[in-house]
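Hi D.,

Good news: the full-assembly prediction came through. Inputs first.
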Amino acid sequence: MTLKRRDGPDTSAPPTSPAPTSTDTVVAQRRNFLRRGAAVAAGGVALGASAQTLEIPKSNLAAGRPMEAKAYGTPSRYYTVTRNRTDVLVNRQNFSDWSMTPLQHQHGIVTPNGLFFERHHAGVPDINPDEHRLVLHGMVRQPLVFTMSDLMRYPSVSKFYFLECSGNGLTDWTRAASTTVQQSHGLLSCGQWTGVPLSWLLEEAGVDPKATWMLFEGADGAGHTRSVPMKKALADVLIVYGQNGEMLRPEQGYPLRAFVPGWEGNVSVKWLRRIKVGDAPWNFRSETARYTDPMPDGKWRQFSFEMEAKSVITNPSGGMRMAGPGPVEIQGFAWSGNGTIRAVDVSVDGGRNWQEARLEEPVLDKCLTRFRFNWRWDGSPAQIASRAVDSTGYVQPTVADIAKVRALTGFVQHHNGVFPWSISASGEVKNAIA
Amino acid sequence: MTLKRRDGPDTSAPPTSPAPTSTDTVVAQRRNFLRRGAAVAAGGVALGASAQTLEIPKSNLAAGRPMEAKAYGTPSRYYTVTRNRTDVLVNRQNFSDWSMTPLQHQHGIVTPNGLFFERHHAGVPDINPDEHRLVLHGMVRQPLVFTMSDLMRYPSVSKFYFLECSGNGLTDWTRAASTTVQQSHGLLSCGQWTGVPLSWLLEEAGVDPKATWMLFEGADGAGHTRSVPMKKALADVLIVYGQNGEMLRPEQGYPLRAFVPGWEGNVSVKWLRRIKVGDAPWNFRSETARYTDPMPDGKWRQFSFEMEAKSVITNPSGGMRMAGPGPVEIQGFAWSGNGTIRAVDVSVDGGRNWQEARLEEPVLDKCLTRFRFNWRWDGSPAQIASRAVDSTGYVQPTVADIAKVRALTGFVQHHNGVFPWSISASGEVKNAIA
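Then the structure:
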């Protein structure tokens, strides 16, 4: 402590713009400091800022909160970021609704469980895991019933996968309804999921060779139920109880859910209580009246499960204001339900020219990948956007491209179009979809 | 809903042992079902278990909790796992103490922020990020002062790294003091950290070529301060504000901490307020009276920063009871402060024979790696342990190996010895260190 008092900090001015990203910006930054130095001499803002640093912080002068005997920690009271419910297009009793992840505040690729997006049709059930059962029956040699402890005694696997609602972006096809990326893309989260490959349970039950489909049924008030092809179930579907190192959160299906990697979120049925094996889809309401796509010929496409390659810039994004002309790191997420992200291109001129962004490791299959791109904003109006390319060679389309093959009328799902943000001369960032 | 009622589940018995891991165990499992089937006919336990599955769960018959407008989610009320404070060897006022991560309950490699281990010397300070400042001074051309918004405007990087206290395991060198892996190894967690490489800030300040060390000082009541070599600072030290996708938790240094990858946790100074560049270590109390290692010649080793390769079996582990003879997946964690994990060997006969375990992807630098090993317990007493090998070729030593080069007397840090668990004929799993 003596040393701290004897050895006070310097009173120079703080830096006021982002870090140098090349030699010339380093030079620019140094000049900037000299100018600020003059301002300090004249008694400017910088002096006030650095004067505070001469004081020993209050927190150094007293003990803090003692440790608790048993605790499950919570964020700082100064950290007020939340997942937000939307009232757009939905009823008002809040049982069938969605809440969205604040992607503009997410660091890295892991979404904290407390900020994971929600989508449910009859609220969040309160299930005692000791009473929960999973039934596996239908076209199998030996129908089975599992308790949670039965399932948790199996060998397990843990995989990082994104989860996205097929409705993500449905308010922003042809008009800029959303003001932030949380509203336009927040039905998207990513985590590490732990559970048992469904193929192991099917092997144990002994599937009839003629079986081609299965149903997943939830224990929620809506009894949400979907049909899933046997081929996918055998490929990589997991029966999941773990989410980011702990048990599933209630909103994510506690104590058990299906997880269908890379497919629209609603088939990863939560609060999973029953799997039935059959030889045809069941055509539930969620695959006839909902989760279908209108096509140009007036027909509706059923079972469009895959979430195709998509990306979005999260910094800068809607609702932000640029700190001023100068270097800025453009950041965002890219993901594909069909594999890994091979490349992400960024445009800062409304889509005329594209340059390749850096992908941050690890780049994983069916997982969020963070991309970064160094840009120097000159202070004039600009339009920025990103475009993902996945390991199959598929290139993220524009909304105009999608409009050629689908009908963009009504309650349209699967919006993976290129999403632009506009930056005004005053530095305001706005949704530029149109 | 109609379909659910019309289409009730089968009433067969539940499986009662872990999943088949080879053909012969599949057969064994099938026979087991037949035996249970007979028991059902006689009105046994299985009937009770499956009878429950004939009922529609209560949660299916009513709407659940409505969605909140703004929320930061919490675990299920049925999930009661916590990080636990220890009173071993520490004072009683709970300001200088530690709490430990329940590794036996952790799925995957990411530790949930709410279960991240804690170690602090004067409690957890309550810091307003708007008032926080980081001072960078000493042997630099241009001393700097940073606000949080200054730092968060820099380009950033996100990295998965483990964090381990140098004291992890100090109660269990030569006697089995801990009953669970939370107590013996729980000063260990892993997350994705987001921040600014310190080298960028140093470049901006202009470091004197003669500078070889720097100090990190915290804004906590203890004013925790450590000396760190410039070489490491330039290599991979981060100035961190993000933890697993959100801002740092208060116990982890909110709003700002140093993160020194692979080194003992105490040098990753939390609540970071000051960095001073110099040409020699400062010999703070935390590097003379503490965080030093007694050697056989009676001298004490200073600055033993690296956390060398280590591993531990978390399932089965102390305090658990085997479900019974049969297949079981041995699981655990391996990590190294000097690189990636190349291999993990598992012994089930007290260390006489070793077999290679499977490593689960992703296997990342200075990060927890999960290993898995299929074993069939025959019901007789056994002793199990794991042994890590890292990318430098270093092999995790036994405690006996360590005793040859260090003195295991008093408050000894850096226990990375092979850690055995014993399994009794009754299936009880116990700490077997001795």
